[in-house]
Structure formats: structure tokens, C-alpha cells
């Protein structure tokens, strides 16, 4: 679960700053509110799983598999957040927190099916 948060954070940073194509671990630490040591520990696990690569200068990039999985996580987060706010009337801050927790409990298949269902029923969720 926590490693998925790191993967999603790397993806989100890359979306905000796509030009360099890599992310500094300090940026991930800032976004998640964790220590750089925590980021480095997670990066080791993500590297071992073949989801990220890290240069000798410490910059991190997602592998193809990492990019696909991170995109699925981010899409799921946005979808859940949108559903909670728009369909259930949950306040945005609570919806964001709960979407983050919920996305880790769903299988990849369930995430994809729910995303497709909501896209069909309501149109694509917003990018917030």
C-alpha cells in the first residue's frame, strides 16, 4: 500500500513537471510528507519490483510497467474522489483522503472495471 503511494507520487510529480522526465526523491518526500530515508527505502522496493529506475545522481524515473501501474493508481484515485464528491456529496478533503485509502483495497481488475463503468455512466472524471 505505502509503496503504491510512492509510485503514484512519482507519477503525479512527473505530470506536473514533464520536461526533465525524472523526479528527485526530495520532491516525493515533500509531496507525501515523509522523510527522505522513507522515500529511499520505498525506492529500493520499487526498483526490486522493476517499477522504477534510479540514476547514480539519485533522479528517479518510472519503467514502462511502473508508468502503467502508476497511471492506473492515479486514474483510480481521481475516479474514486470524483465519485465520492459528485455522487455521494463527501467534502473534497475527506474524499481525497478516503480515495487514497480505497484505491489500495481494490484489485487492478476492479479498478479498471469501476473506471470503465463510471466513464460510461457519467463521462470521464475530472483531473483534480
TrEMBL record:
Compartment(s): Cytoplasm
Domain HTH dtxR-type: 1-63
Main location: cytoplasm
Pfam families for this protein: Fe_dep_repr_C (PF02742), Fe_dep_repress (PF01325)
Residue stretches making up the HTH arsR-type domain: 1-87
Similarity comment: Belongs to the DtxR/MntR family.
Subunit annotation: Homodimer.
Protein name: Manganese transport regulator
Top-rank lineage group of the source organism: Bacteria
Keywords attached to this entry: Activator, Cytoplasm, DNA-binding, Manganese, Repressor, Transcription, Transcription regulation
Organism per entry: Kribbibacterium absianum
InterPro entries (UniProt xref): DtxR_MntR_Metal-Reg (IPR050536), Fe_dep_repressor (IPR001367), Fe_dep_repressor_sf (IPR036421), HTH_ArsR_DNA-bd_dom (IPR001845), HTH_CRP (IPR012318), HTH_DTXR (IPR022687), Iron_dep_repressor (IPR022689), WH-like_DNA-bd_sf (IPR036388)
